[in-house]
Amino acid sequence: MSSDDEFITIKSKVNAEIKIKGSRFIGTAAPVHSVEKAEQFVQQMKKLYYDATHNCYAFSVYHHDQEITRYSDDSEPAGTAGSPMLAVIQGQELTNLAVVVTRYFGGTKLGKGGLIRAYTDCTKTVLNNAELFKKLIYTKISFTFPYDLTGNVMHLLSQMNGKMITSSYGDRAKLTIKLPKSHAGDFKEQIVEITAGKVGFE
User: Fold this and answer.
1) What is the pTM of this model?
2) 172 and 147 in contact (C-beta within 8 Å)?
3) Domain total for the chain?
C-alpha cells in the first residue's frame, strides 16, 4: 500500500491541562472528517468554556485530495496561538483532527514568546494523550461498460483492492467503486484496455 493511500489521525476525543504563571491552558482534541465537523467541534468547545479568556483552535482536514487547514488566535496577539498549534499538528503529520486550547488568564502576561510556547506545549501534551491510527484514502469512480465484460472488470477490481459501492445491470453494467487513491489512474487505463474503449466514466 502506498503512503499516498493513508493518513494518520487520532482515535477519539482527548484533553489535557497545563498551568503557566497562573494561567490555565486546557487542550481538547477530537477526530473530525470534514471542515463542517471541525467547526462544529470548535463551537462546542466555545460553548463549554464560554467564560474562558480565549478559545484558540487549529484543525487539518483531508478533503478531495488536499489538506484544508484553519486556525484562530481568538484575540491573543497575532501568531501566538493558532499558528503554533497548527505547526504541532503538521509537525506530527496528523490530519482529520481539530484542537482547541482554552485559556483562563491568571493575571500574569506571558509575552509573545511565552504564549507561543504555552500553546505549543498544550497542543503537544493533548496529542501525546491521543491514540493514533492510520486511515486509508479511497477514490470513488463511477463507470458503465458492456455487460458481457463484467467478469473481466470484477477480476481487475479484485486485483487492485477495490470495493463495490453500488451496481446495476442491463445491456450495460454500471458500477460505483472505491479503490486506494494511488490505484485510480492505473485502474482507469486498464478498464479502457479490457473494454476496448467501450467504457464511460461519470
Assistant:
1) 0.76
2) yes
3) 2
Beta strands in the chain (DSSP E): 6-10, 14-20, 23-31, 54-63, 66-72, 97-104, 132-136, 138-146, 163-169, 172-180, 200-201
Domain range for 50 is: 3-135
Q: Which of 41, 15, 19, 12 is nearest to 28 (CA)?
A: 15
Domain boundary among 135, 156, 173: 135
Rounded to an integer, what distance in angstroms lies between the CA atom of residue 72 and that of residue 97?
Answer: 15
In this structure, what CATH number is given to the domain that contains residue 98? 3.30.230.30
Q: Which three cell numbers stand for residue 105?
A: 488568564
Cell of 44: 462546542
Residues 135-148 as b or e (16 or more Cβ within 10 Å = b): eeebbebebbbeee
For every one of its 202 residues, what pLDDT tens digit does the chain have, with 9 covering 90 and above? 345 678 899 999 999 999 999 999 999 999 999 999 999 999 999 999 999 999 999 999 987 667 899 999 999 999 999 999 999 999 999 999 999 999 999 989 999 999 999 999 999 999 999 999 888 888 889 999 999 999 999 999 999 989 999 999 988 999 999 988 888 889 999 999 999 999 999 8
Same domain, 152 and 112: no
C-alpha distances (whole Å) from 143 to each of 139, 156, 193, 194 are: 13, 14, 14, 14
